[in-house]
Design goal:
It is a multi-pass membrane protein. The chain is an all-alpha fold. It has helices at 6-18, 26-29, 40-47, 62-76, 82-90, 92-96, 102-137, 141-144, 149-153. Among the domains are: 67-100, no CATH class; 112-158, no CATH class.
Length: 159
Amino acid sequence: VFHFFPFLKWLSKMEASQSDDPSLNPVRNRNPNPDPAPNPLSTIISSAQVWPTIDGPLGLTEEASVDYARRFYKFGFALLPWLWFVNCFYFWPVLRHARAFPQIRNYVVRSAIGFSVFTALLSAWALTFSIGGEQLFGPVYDKLVMYNVADRLGLSGLA
């Protein structure tokens, strides 16, 4: 009968796959991945070694990475907060993997916090100054802006 009606053969397989009896359910007993070789991409990702820098194996060793992360963090306080951004960028794998490299992570997370605070303060100041302008600062505004420094110092030749 199945030779003449392939739909009935398909329907009987569907009913057997919904049954709880394993002898009637050949689909449930079968390996969902018929290829005995595992997926090479998943094994590469799961067995990949985590490196402290974005350079991977070409980058710094863990001991040197701690020293560089500490230097970037400390020099960020010397009015160079963009080094905090560089620290976060260069040691991005340390930020991504929470349990890897705890000594380096300490400096990188602090750099991320410092850069975020710096960016928020700089943005707030810039927006206040540009939106508020002369209405907010009054007559002091002309002394604060930098576009008329040459005029004030007599360097433009117009005064």
